[in-house]
Sequence to fold (211 residues):
Amino acid sequence: MNTVIQRFKEIGIIPVIALEHKEDASLLAEALCKGGLPAAEITFRTREAAACIKEMRASHPDMLVGAGTILSTAQVDEAISAGAQFIVSPGFDEEVVKYCIQKDIPVVPGTATATDVQAAYKLGLSFVKVFPAEILGGIKMIKAIAAPYNMMTFMPSGGVSEKNMDAYLKEDIILCVGGSWMVKKEWIEQRDFAKIAEETKKAVALLKEVR
Fold:
């Protein structure tokens, strides 16, 4: 888990992607790597999510590739079998978290309240997702919740963009952010991977201004 957390911190922005076709996986991975973000959270919102993870890991083995929107232990097994290196859930599911811990699978559960963060802490986690970050109150809310939990770090996701990422990333409690503004659905559908690489470079440039 610590190795994956360190990579989250080094990369800084984790692209969150819903991929419909596995044929796009390697091309998208190439675009992200060219842009300077060798990472992807492939959400389990599509039928080919597992196949896309498998293709990305095969074509770009140095990338950090995980599975998002994981709602059950069965999906954990499917994602890990496909090669996922970490698991992300939208909310705090104790069964999923315990299952991952027992199997030594890096897991980043979603949290939205102090109660969620407390539950994660009690299970031995030190890094959690905050979702949907902007709607919940953004960095002010996260800082307020984090105050009693100075051992925790956070990955805000949901509403994070190039316009507000700096507010999050300048805070030490924020390890990285998750977002999809550099991998918009229409660009993937149009197979405009050059545009994705270009926008990824812009995101990395903004990241370097903050860190």
